[in-house]
Amino acid sequence: MLIATNGRGQAVQDPSEPAMGTMLADLDQGDHLILERQDESREGNWYVQVWFRDEDTYQLEYRDGVPTEHYQTQTESQEKVLHALLDWAADKPAWREGFTWTSIGHWFAPGPDDEDEDDSTA
Length: 122
Prior knowledge:
By secondary structure, the chain is an alpha+beta fold. The protein is 17% helix and 33% strand. Strands 2-1-3-4-5-6-7 form a seven-stranded antiparallel beta sheet, covered by helices on one side. Strand 5 (57-65) and strand 6 (70-75) form a beta hairpin.
């Protein structure tokens, strides 16, 4: 099942193409939209999200299951973002095309302070 949620908490289950288009078009600067795939047969978090940034720029991100598989890109084209969201929702493999993606998975990797401290000596 797909769930689209915006920054104001509006959630739509299995959103239609017009619903996703409206949710995207209604974003205010600084607002976001998350499209999440909830599937019990897949472990982890599977989502694509878009932030409407200052200067009319869209920041598009996606995560493929685990934090280290998290990528980001930016565009000024609302149309390209909508097509990416729709193609991702339809599970079309070419949805990432037309963007230059940067891996940001290292932002979500545990740091040395997050690791278990059982290695201390007595």
